[in-house]
Fold these 2 entries.
Entry 1:
Amino acid sequence: MAVDYYKVLGLERSAGADAIKSAYRKLARKYHPDLNPNDTEAKRKFQEINEAQEVLSDPDSRRKYDKYGEHWKHADQIEAQEKQRAQQGAGGSGGAFTGDAGFGDGSTMSEEEMNDLFGNLFGGRGRGRREVKYRGPDYRAESQLDLMGARTTHQQTLTVNGKQLRITVPAGVEDGQTIRIPGQGGAGVNGGPPGDLYLTFVVQEHPRFKRVGADLYTTASINLSTAMLGGEVRVETLDGIVKLKAAPGTRTGTRVKLKGKGFPVYKQEGQHGDLYVTYTVELPTTLTPEQRALFEQLARTEPQP
Amino acid sequence: MSTGPLISIELYCRHEELDLTFVQALTDRGLIHVVVQEEQHFLPADQVARLEQLARMHFDLDINLEGLEAISHLLERMDRMQQQVRTMEQRLRLYEP
């Protein structure tokens, strides 16, 4: 469905330049990406507001939009065709797009107002100049990593808008973390500086380890006799299998901490979080006759509740 | 603590056509950090994005310096809260099978 730029800015069709400027600023203050970091809905809304403002604040674009609605970008072609038809004696008003015609005639802005508007809204710092420098747009991209990949500092090649970019991903990046790569966004206009690239990491979950910051959590199963009598338990860590001693009487839910066996701390070389291992005591589901006899013997020694 | 290379504020302002008094006002309010070396003022590279953001808010959105101060505090708070939410989400995942 076509977007109504007047509705986007909450304006009447007869709104003047000042009203457009004021409506744009009011909405931009609400939806500007600087004020709504990581909010894609706000970003989408801001782009819509920006587009509406760009069209309506330019008298020529506005006139075309008022006349041709959503097809305003093709106004020159339509008008050329109409002119051609008129010259050929065909006459009539250009059929296909008349449905959107009939908007009120847009007010015009003086050159001074135009300079003021563009100078203030976009160039900001370049007041009074004819040619305003625009900073290039910021780009956003996502990079998928698995937990093991996020564990080490490594090089990654990304393709952003057709351009290959080699970046260093520091060890310890977190799921959802965004880093800014200056100057790797869109090119500036009229010699303006390029925008930045905001790269968000999506770190996949690991089947064995769950991560909270730089700490890792895992579980280890121990059999009933080891739980009761104590003994050795083999536990998987990021560096391989380690042997732990389980104390006699270990219960399900008992947690042990392996200091420094967690994840690397982001941008703090050599520092690691801890690994927490939670024991789960596995109860046998079937018993051999011998085990059954032993359990019955044990049961007779237990105090009755 | 700001890190990275230092950029002369005077040169930066000239290049970006930014008023020096605006940078000074932001510094006075503690919204950006500058480094002074031999009576020259420098902008650490990691402060450039922050300065650009504040300039956009001030010039493009017409937010005055008091507003920038209030917004900066709220954005910092929001950032901390987002970090807390992220940590809580990670902790909740520990209880999922």
Entry 2:
Amino acid sequence: MHIMEGYLPAGHAIGWSIATLPFLVVGVKRLGDRLRKDPESRLVLAAAGGFTFVLSALKLPSVTGSCSHPTGIGFGTVLFGPWIMTVVGFVVLLFQALLLAHGGLTTLGANCFSMAIAGGFTAWWIYRLGDAARLPFNLTIFLAAALSDLMTYVVTSLQLALAFPDPVGGVIGSAVKFLAVFAVTQVPLAISEGLLTVLVMNLLRSHASDIIGGLVPRLRSAAR
Amino acid sequence: MKRQNLLLLAGAIALAVVPLAMIGHGGEGAFGGSDDLATKLITVIKPGYHRWISPLWEPPSGEIESLLFAVQASLGTGVVAYCLGYYRGRRRAQADDAAAR
């Protein structure tokens, strides 16, 4: 999902950066509020950040014969909401842009938008929807994490299609080409991310049911 | 719960191993990054497009790059494992306290 440095025309790079900025501003404010009001959750927040760090570093082989990586955004979104995870995603992408030349500073806005904002809000809405439908908790967070992962790559494809319309097929023709590169590769990885999200949530719940119960209203009754 | 966790882990591993076994050594460029494929696709759709700005710093070799990716993954794992270990120890201590009383 990383659009490499210099591979978005300047106008698009600036546009996506402007689109991302308000989410970051609100995210930083919410993060500050959360840490002040609920210092107990600090360690779990660090773990959510750690999870995003690991998953976005794992380039996994896929059925298309290319490699791609999950995002790890869904896990933290279930616990802390999409705004705070925008900040976490931004930090991860900044690390990769500066130290790994993976992604870039001019494409940071676009990459943050696809991974943290589109991915985060998708996870959040799916999670809320599953909750409202009374789906089992583990199934809900599996779907939230997997679809958030997939959505990130769909949005990257659309961003590239907007910037580079196909001479024949236009934006849609170009989107189909980019989706063929990204979305198909991502399907098994999205499933992996869903499985790993449920796994880590299970582990946390079995050891810190009080903290998780405080963050996830639905699990509160189960908390001691 | 333990059984479910083992199945989840096995599923995640299988999803990575199966493509490798299925496709094997597909020759040059097999299992390249999808990000790089997209970058190539840009130059196919718009021939003559060149990046208008380069990264400030690039890892000088594939080895250094994989070192930094490993650092990223191990930092993340370290934090997650610390958190799990902390709460596991805390829960044990609480159980011991309750038993002693």
